Amino acid sequence: MKKIILNLVTLVSVLALATGATVAYFSDTETSNNNTFTMGTLDLKVGNQDDPFVVHVARTGLKPNTPWTTNYGVQWNLKNAGTLPGTVTATIKNIKDYENTCLDPEVGDTTCGADTDQGELSGLLVHTQWGINEAPWGRTLSPSFVNLKAAEGVPVTGVNFHLDPGQTIPALFSMYWDQTVNDNLAQGDSVAFDVEFQLNQD
Question: Would you kindly state where each structural domain of the chain is located, as residue ranges?
Answer without folding.
Answer: 44-201
